[in-house]
Amino acid sequence: MKEDDPHKLFAQQFANPHSWLLAADDLHEQALGLHRRRDGKIILIRSDGSSRSWDRVDKSIFLLGGFALENAIKAFLVYENPDWVSGGKLSNRLRSHRLTKLQEQSKLIPFKHRHIDVPTPVR
Hints:
Shape: elongated
Strand content: 5-15%
Helix content: 40-55%
Largest sheet: 2 strands, antiparallel
Number of domains: 1
Strand order of the largest sheet: 1-2
Structural class: mainly alpha
Distance between the termini: 57 Å
Order of helices and strands: HHEEHH
């Protein structure tokens, strides 16, 4: 692979652990910003005569938060396994979006066995 190969440069500049953590921090800040701007507007879904509502940004906050967590986990994985981003390609082991499967691969991630299950809200 040539020294100025764009894939290799991407892997060196953006696929290192620090870049993964910066991306996680940015996504987390975006989720917090959305949460602060919640305005109570709702989406109504009717099914069989029933309805359900929530703040319209809840889904976005949840998705951004999950993506932030995914990037933080991948920072640990890349730190532990630098060869997973070598040659300008991400390893297939990094291409998953399943948070529990990703965190299982890390030996260094803190609180590895805590808070795996998300409790169901009481209604």
